[in-house]
Design goal:
This is DUF3445 domain-containing protein. It holds the Pfam family HODM_asu-like. By secondary structure, the chain is α+β, with helices and mostly antiparallel strands. It has one domain. Helices cover 33% and strands 23% of the residues. It is built from 14 helices and twelve strands. The strands form three sheets. The chain has a seven-stranded antiparallel β-sheet. Strands 5-6-7 form a three-stranded antiparallel β-sheet. Helix 12 runs antiparallel to helix 14.
Length: 332
């Protein structure tokens, strides 16, 4: 007797963290590409959908912004703003807070008269008034305040000399890189260590695309790696805290619960007044055990990890355990 599985019922029973997860693969192999598409385009997956909002709020909202504040208290260097980028930070506030209120009208609102603004965030039981351009009107400064309201990291690129320069940002959840080190560098220099992308001219094409962005235009792309445990802060600054586990996790029976697929949804926005380009980097983590609850995902992730070229696996820091992860997925 054959057994019929109601896949719709199985999908309906999945938790929201799986239904909303931005699954990053379109095939059973992966190579670097720009993979840019319009912002807020809804993407249907085998588990649900994602992508309908610019600033996604999920079950981790309060814990994520709390963790960001704790990281910044320990290491203020995670905020960098070169003096000429102050207008871009205020431009981001004037762009993102209204968008967030529009997407969450039951829990947030934004009102502006001239440069005087009022922001209400019911999820945080917060109401604040501030003045655009007056850094002292927001406790901790405008960029730290904005980082306390959204789950995304932020990187600001200035355009000059026919190139893009990373001149400001707030990054507490970096995937093995350092904002403090990269601030002041050109776009090409930042991506120099990434294998293949310079030779294949991916960085050059990406930069040309960004240089052509018009004020107010919004696009997005995804990027991925693996992370051990639900650890958001895997910055270079905290390397000793998380890197040693890469060498031992392959033999850990808890590997399926501890190894997470880490996906970044990166929004690319040409800010309308300053002309700076804002990268929003939202990080999502889903364990391999959760991945395996969606059979198509289990198969694809297993085969992507098995097929990934060694130089790319080494750069992502997963070469010592990607085979164990792939073997588990494909045997499940």
């Amino acid at each position: 007797m054959s057994i019929i599985i109601d896949t719709d019922a199985v999908t309906a029973a999945l938790p929201e963290r799986i239904k909303r997860f931005p699954f990053p693969y379109s095939s059973e192999s992966y190579r670097y590409s720009a993979n840019v598409e319009p912002s807020r385009k809804v993407v249907m997956t085998e588990a649900g959908e994602w992508g309908g909002r610019l600033l996604d709020i999920d079950e981790h909202y309060l814990s994520d912004v709390k963790e960001r504040g704790e990281v910044l208290d320990r290491d203020p260097s995670r905020i960098q703003v070169l003096p000429h980028m102050r207008p871009a930070v205020w431009d981001a506030i004037a762009t993102l807070l209204p968008a967030m209120a529009e997407e969450n009208p039951d829990s947030m609102s934004f009102h502006r008269e001239g440069n005087n603004c009022r922001w209400w965030n019911g999820l945080q039981d917060l109401e604040v008034e501030f003045t655009i351009g007056d850094d002292s009107s927001l406790q901790g400064g405008p960029l730290r305040f904005l980082g306390s309201q959204i789950q995304d990291d932020m990187v600001f690129l200035d355009q000059r000399e026919d190139a893009l320069w990373l001149d400001a940002g707030l990054v507490t959840f970096a995937a093995d890189w350092s904002l403090g080190f990269d601030t002041g560098m050109k776009f090409h220099e930042i991506h120099g260590p990434v294998p293949r992308v310079l030779e294949e001219k991916i960085v050059s094409r990406a930069e040309q695309f960004l240089l052509r962005l018009q004020p107010g235009e919004q696009y997005r792309r995804t990027n991925w790696t693996l992370t051990i445990d639900r650890r958001l802060d895997t910055s270079t600054e905290t390397y000793p805290n998380w890197a040693p586990e890469r060498g031992t996790i392959a033999d850990d029976p808890a590997l399926p619960d501890r190894v997470h697929l880490r996906v970044e949804v990166q929004h690319l926005i040409r800010l309308p007044h300053s002309g700076a380009i804002l990268f929003l980097v939202r990080t999502y983590l889903l364990s391999l055990a959760d991945i395996a609850r969606v059979p198509v995902w289990r198969e694809i992730v297993g085969r992507v990890l098995a097929e990934l070229p060694e130089d790319m696996a080494e750069y992502k820091g997963i070469s010592r355990y990607r085979k164990a992860a792939s073997d588990w997925l494909l045997a499940t």
